[in-house]
Every structure is written in C-alpha cells, then in structure tokens.
Design goal:
This protein has 270 residues and is α+β, with helices and mostly antiparallel strands. Helix content is 21%, strand content 26%. It has two domains: 103 residues, 2-Layer Sandwich (Alpha-Beta Plaits); 132 residues, Pseudouridine synthase I, catalytic domain, C-terminal subdomain (Alpha-Beta Plaits, 2-Layer Sandwich), CATH 3.30.70. The longest helix has 13 residues.
Length: 270
C-alpha cells in the first residue's frame, strides 16, 4: 500500500530535507529511520518539496510504499515516538498508487518571516531572520508585480539547481507588515533551488531604496543570477502548504502555530 504523511519540522538543525551522501543529519534520514522501525522493514520516502538547510515546514507532504499494515494512528503516534522533538508527523492517509507527493502536487506555498528590529530576538532566535534596515512596503509590493504568472526564473535560481526547465508559475506574492515582522507569502506551481530566498533578498534591496521599483522586472527578463540581489537567510522560511486534487482525500495545509498562523489574512488561500 502507499501511505501519505503530513510532516512539520524545524529545519535549522539539519542539512536540508533530502538525504545526502555527506555526513550530516537530514529530515529525510530521520523520518526514514523512524518509519522503518514502525514498519519493520526498510522505508524510503518521497517529498513534495526538498527544503534547503535551515528551512522549516509546517505542511510538508511525503509518501512511501510498504507491505506492512498499520492503522493511521500508528503511523502518526508510533513514528513520532521514534523521532527527535523537532520533527513530527501530523497525519497519515492511505492513498492510491497514482499519488505522488511531488508530482501530484498542484502548488507549493512558502512564507518568509523577517523580524525588522534593531535588536535580535530571544524566543524566536532561530525561527526568523533579522534585518535592521527600513523597508518601504509599497515599493516592494509594486516591484513584485512583474513576478506573477509564468516566467523563466533563472535570475533567482541557485547554482545547484538541476531542473530541466527554469520556468515556474507564481500564483501570488504578497508582502505584509505585522507588528515588527515583514511577511513574504508566495505560492507557485513549483520552486527552483533558493528561488524564494533569492526573490526576498532582491525585493529587500528595492524596499531599502537601493534599487528602483522596475529593477525586479529587468533582472527577471535578463535571466542572469549575477544581476539579482543576495540570497536571504534560511531562518524564517517555512513551507506552509502543498495543494493536491481533492480526490486524493488529504487534509488541507496547516499554516503554522499561533505566531505564524496569525498572518493568515496576509494573502489569499492557495
């Protein structure tokens, strides 16, 4: 049978989601070890989005195949008993053989939480990135408009990306201020390596007045990563939603705990 799971994790203690040849803990490695213990056989998982080192998730989706029969509750509670505190399975569902966590996904949604203060945080020291400058929200919102729709996002692609095509369709991108926080909320059919962080890093240059509003559209058309801004820090980036056809019967995305979920009105539903 094929089982789909919802997973949340704090990413700053891991070398990313995907299992790697080099030494270093990954979310996939921890999950596979825990699931294998519950299944009594080796388990290999596929995920909806391979988040980078330091990036967290509130609504990652994975699937795996197994001949072991377990109730949904066992896949959740049993697996969590084998996982470290910073990774948790939130739900489990049996799905059809045609379901694939990555290829069946219609869209992914990320949020980048930036604390815009002169002081560093204490409680959220690893959950947000801190930028001390002054940022014009209107300038960033206007600069983001050319990014909507389907484009070649080579200018915002990480050097390690192995995608055959760098065309992606951005469904929405909003920037909101909530108290001391700037919230970048973006959904697309899929994302390139470092794409969200590169977009945020470039938009911050516009917000700080270091680049003109039309600059984002210009570098998008140029398809040259060397022309864009720096990559924003990984802390504060969250995969908050993956959408699928309702026929799969999966739960909707959980947009995060209270401090993150309170930003739910910042953007339309994915």
């Amino acid at each position: 049978m094929r089982i789909a799971l919802g997973v949340e994790y704090e990413g700053w203690g891991y070398q990313g989601f995907q299992r790697q040849r080099e030494t270093g803990a990954t979310v996939q490695g921890r999950l596979e070890a825990a699931l294998s213990a519950i299944a009594n056989q080796a388990v290999e998982i596929s995920c909806a989005g391979r988040t980078d080192a330091g990036v967290s998730a509130t609504s990652q989706v994975v699937h795996f195949d197994t001949s072991s029969v377990r109730p949904d509750r066992a896949w959740v509670v049993g697996t969590n008993s084998k996982l470290p505190p910073d990774i948790a399975v939130t739900w489990a569902r049996e799905v059809g053989e045609g379901f694939h966590a990555r290829f069946s996904a219609r869209s992914r949604r990320y949020r980048y939480i930036l604390q815009n203060t002169r002081h560093r945080p204490g409680i959220l020291s690893r959950g947000v990135s801190v930028y001390h400058g002054e940022y014009d929200l209107g300038r960033m919102q206007e600069a983001a408009r050319p990014l909507l729709g389907e484009h070649d996002f080579s200018s915002f692609c990480g050097a390690d990306d192995e995608s055959r095509s760098r065309c992606r369709c951005v469904h929405f991108l909003t920037i909101s201020r909530v108290g001391d926080y700037l919230v970048f909320d973006i959904a697309a059919n899929a994302f390139l390596n470092h794409m969200v962080r590169n977009l945020v890093g470039s938009l911050l240059l516009v917000g700080a007045g270091e680049r003109e509003v039309g600059w984002m559209g210009e570098i998008l058309e140029a398809r040259d990563r060397n022309l864009a801004g720096p990559t924003a820090h990984p802390q504060g980036l969250y995969l908050v939603g993956v959408t699928y056809d309702p026929s799969h019967g999966l739960p909707g995305p959980a947009l995060g705990p209270l401090w993150l979920g309170s930003f739910d009105l910042c953007a339309p539903k994915a």
